[in-house]
Amino acid sequence: MIKGLSQFIKFAGGTVRSIFPPYCRFSFYYKQFIDVGVKSIPIVLIVGAFVGMVLAVMTYKQFSKLGIESLVGPFIAVPMVSQLGPIMTALMILCRVGSAMTAELGTMRVTEQIDALHCFGINPMKTLVAPRVIVCAALLPALTVISDMIGILGGWMISVQFFEINSHFYMDQTKKYFESFDIFTGIAKAFFFGVIISVVCCYKGFYSKGGASGVGNSIMQAVVVSFIMIIVSNFFMSMVGQYIWQHYVR
Question: Which domain holds residue 235?
C-alpha cells in the first residue's frame, strides 16, 4: 500500500510537471473536449433535471407539514449548486469518461504502445495524461453549471406546475437565500473533482498489467478509488467552505 501511494504521488507530481508548459498539439485537446464535454451534456442534463425534480418532491412533502412551502425554492437551489450538482456531475463523468480513460491507457500499456512512445523519445505523460487532466479539470465546472441550471429549472417546474407554489414568490425566496459564495463553492469542488477523476483514472490505466483481466481490474479500482476520494474530499471542502463563509464572507 505504501509503495502504491508513493507511486501515485510520483505520478501526480509528474503530471503537474508535464502540464507546464502544456502540449501544444490541438488534436489531443479537441478529442478530449468532445469526449469529456460535448458527449457528456445529454446525461448531465437528464441527471440534473431529475435530481432537481426529486428535490422538489421530497422538499415539498416535508415542508408542507411545517407550513413553510415558500422555502422550497432556496432548499432546491442552494444544495443543488453547492453539493448535489458537483457531486452528481462528477460521478457521471467518472462512470462515463473516467472508466474510458483507464481502459484506453490500460490497453495502450498492456499492448506496449506506451513503451513504444518512450522508444521514439515522446513523453507519454505530456501527450497522453496532461491533455486529459487539463480538459477534465476545465470542463467539469462547466458541466456542473449546466447541471445546476437544469436542476433548478426542474425543481421550479415541479414546484410551480404541480404543487402550485406562486412562481414570483418562489423566485423571490430563492434570491433571498441564494448567495454567490454557493456558486463559487460548487465550481471549486467541480474543479478538484475533475482533477481527482483524471489523475486517478489515468494513473490506474498507466500502470495496468496482466492483459485484458488486468485492464478490467484497473477500471474497477479507478472507479472505486475515485468515488471514495470524491465523497471524502467533498466533506473536507464543505467544512473549509463553511469556515471561510463564517469568518470571512458572512
Answer: 30-64+71-244
